[in-house]
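One chain is below:
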Amino acid sequence: MKTIFLNLFLNFAAVALFAQSVEEQQAFKLFESGKKAEAVAAFEKIITGNPNNLDAIKALGFIYLELGKNQEAYQVSSKGLSLNKNDDNLSINKARAAVKIGKADEAIMLMDACIARDANFFMPYVVKGNALDAQDKIQQAIGMYSKAIQLNPNFPNVYLDRGNDFVAISRYTQGIADYDKVISLAPESNEAFNMRGVANYRLEKYDEALTDYTKAIALGNFYAIINRGVVYKEQGKNDLAKSDFNKAIGLQPNNAGDAYFNLADVLLHEQNYDGALLNIEKAVAVRPNSALYQSLYASTLLSLKRDNDGLAAAEKVLALDAKSRDGFIYKATALSNLKRIDEAIKTITQGISVYPDFYLMYKLRSFIYKQNGKADLAEMDEAKAKQLGIKD
């Protein structure tokens, strides 16, 4: 599922324009000066004194969303809609919150009602697109974003959302065109530069990707640091890659799972097994349910000849992803190393049933057969591996 980026400050500004009381105006000024927590307290106080103050309810719902308090945003917006069920700002706030708390169906219903009231208002199409993305209905979401663009071609974030969807379905050139549009409308959008870098990387345009990531980093995008390191790693520039991964870890150690993972991968290829183990363990601590992380963990443990631990990690991989190629390979390798030959053969044979055209599966089974005196079976698998390897 792609990440949703949507800045609805115009929604807040529309509410602020109609602020009536001195207290409301002061609360809006607190928000505009970046004092969001104080603004929340001010609006909550206004609503306590006047529970039917729709402007304060709309503003509070918006700020809750800005602070990531999605359940609170959903509840206060629901209260507002009980006072005025046809208010589009309240509907948008509630729909945005609904997407965040797993109620995409309700968000779509709310936005459909907005569209029925005014089919020419672009924002409900944007939020409906977000809800469809949450349901992995990417093609339909692209349709919503395209409609929003037709109605308002100057709102940068909708191009960002559509571009992310294009990248999610491997339509990288179209994604780049949308990111170009974002940058033309909002030149300081670090996310547009970062995601254009992703699209260029997928197209193997590494120089362009590095340029985009470097710009995104200059604009404050954390993830672009890791992404740039990945490009350096791909180019074999290990020192530059390690520098970026370590920089990301230093900035946000609790959010640097991919940095730990990629740093471990570089160190593993450099045969620095102890360093690789240290970092992959940190990656797994950040995201214990990542089959990808567990797979590299298994590989590292096997490199250190810790076969029992490697077997446990490989089994974890298959528990998380029952069709993981690496899971089958590492589990069979660990079992073979532990002289549990029948289990090793059974495991790699299961892998071959899932991936009958993957030559490394046959190569591994051939090796296990050969080590255990089954020369005829080993020769058959070796021939199959060579046949498939030529095609690969």
